[in-house]
Amino acid sequence: MNPTSPQAAKERHKAEVARWKKIVAPFEKPSASRAIWQLVSTLGAYLITWALMWWMLQASWWFTLPFIVISGMIMTRIFVLFHDCCHGSFLPSNRANRIIGYLLGVLVFTPYRHWRWEHSVHHAHAGDLDRRGVGDVWTMTVDEYQAAHWFTRLKYRLIRNPFLLFLVFPVLLFVIRERFPSKGASKDILRALWLTNFGIGVMVAVGVWLLGWQYAVLLVASMSVAASFGVWLFYVQHQYEGVYWERHHHWEYTSAALLGSSYYDLPVVLDWFSGNIGYHHVHHLSSKVPNYNLKRCHESHELFKKSKVLTLKSSLSCAKFRLWDERNRELVGYGRAREIAADEVAAKAGKAA
User: Fold this and answer.
1) d(CA 69, CA 271)
2) Per the confidence metrics, is the pTM higher than 0.85?
3) Residues 279-301, buried b or exposed e (16+ Cβ, 10 A)?
4) Neighbouring-strand partners of residue 41
5) What is the pLDDT of residue 133?
6) Closest CA to 274 of 262, 286, 285
7) What is the pLDDT of residue 5?
8) What is the pLDDT of residues 159-176, one digit of tens each?
9) Alpha-helix runs per DSSP H in 245-290
10) Do β-strands 330-332 and 323-325 pair in parallel, antiparallel, or remain unpaired?
11) What is the DSSP string of 106-172?
12) Tens digit of pLDDT for each residue in 73-114?
C-alpha cells in the first residue's frame, strides 16, 4: 500500500484511535463512592459558604464580598459535576447521572437535556472550521471578517470585547439565554428546559420567602462570578497560540482533541474549584473520563504531553486573539488582520503593475 495514499492515512488514523482508546479505557470507569464524596463535599462547602455569607450580611454588605467570590467559584465546580452528568461519566448509573444532572442544573441555571444536546455538538465539531457555531466562542477567519458587512463586524467586535465577553455576556448567558431553547430542540428537550426553569423559579421564590430579597441579589452575584470564571476557562481551552483548526476535509478527531484543547496547569486550589477541567485535552479525547480521573489519565502516558500547556500567567495573552488566519494557521488580533489585508492589497497592486 502506498504510504501517502488516503487509504494508508485512514489505516494510520484507525491505529492511532485504537491506541489512545486503550490508554484511556482504565480511567473511563465511574466510581460511585468518589462521585458521592464530590457531591457531599462540594454541596456541603456551598451551603457553609452561604451560611457564612448570610451571617456576614447582618454586619455589612461589604463583608459578604469574599464569600460571594467563594460561592461563585464553588458554583463553577458544581457546574463541572453537572457537566460530567451530561456526558454520563459522573456516576455508574445512567439514571443517577440524569437525576443528579437535572438537580445540579437548577443550581447552576442550566437545563440538563438542552445543554447536553448543544455540548455534544461542540465535542463533535471542535476545531472544525466548517462546523462552527454551536456551543463554542464565535470565531471568524480573517477573510470572513474582511468580507463581512460593517454591522456583522461591529457585532463581532462587541462579542469578542474582553469586558463584554468575560464579564457581561456570561451573566446574560446563564441568567437569561439558557431560559430559552435553541432552534431545532425536540419536544422532550423543550419539556425538560421548562421543567428546569420551573425548578429555578421555585428555588428563587423559596429563597426570597425565607431570607428576603437579599437572597436574590447574592444568588445573582454568585452566579456572575461563576459564569465569568467558567467562560474564561472555556475560552482559554480553545483560544490560544498554536490551537488546532482545520477545514472539514482535513479535520481529524484525535488531533482536534489533543492539539485543539489546552492543558490549563492551574494551582491546586483552582484545580479544585474548576473540577480539574483544566485537563481539557484529556476530556476532549474521551468525555467518558470523569473529572476525578482526568489528572491521573493525563499523567499516565506521554501521549498527553503534546498538548499546549497554559499557566495562569501565560493564559492572559489569550485575550488578545480575535480571528483565525488560515494562511498562517494562527489566531491573530485585529492589528495583525489589518496588516494581512494591507499585504494582500500591495501584492495585488504589484501583480497589476
Assistant:
1) 16
2) yes
3) bbbbbbbbbbbbbbbbeebbeee
4) none
5) 84
6) 262
7) 57
8) 999 999 999 999 999 999
9) 253-259, 268-273, 280-285
10) antiparallel
11) HHTT--HHHHHHHHHHHHHHTTBGGG-SSSS---EEHHHHHHS-HHHHHHHHHHH-HHIIIIIHHHH
12) 999 999 999 999 999 999 999 999 999 999 999 999 999 999
Given this model, what pLDDT does residue 1 score? Answer: 52
Helix or strand holding residue 183 (H, E): none
First to last CA, the chain: 48
Backbone angles phi, psi at 72, to 5 degrees: -65, -40
Q: What is the CA radius of gyration of the chain?
A: 22
CB 222 within 8 A of CB 238: no
Report helix, strand or coil for 238: coil
Chain centroid to Cα 352, Å, comes to 47
pLDDT at 86: 97
Between β-strands 140-141 and 323-325, what pairing exists: parallel, antiparallel or unpaired? parallel
Report the SS3 class of residue 194.
helix
Largest CA distance in the chain: 78
The Cα 281–Cα 18 span in angstroms is 17
User: From CA 263, how far away is CA 33, in angstroms rounded?
Assistant: 27
Looking up cell 482559554, which residue turns up? 236
Beta 323-325 vs 309-310: how paired, if at all? unpaired
Residue 109 — left, alpha, or beta (φ > 0 → left; ψ -120 to 50 → alpha)? left
Q: Which amino acid is at 311?
A: T
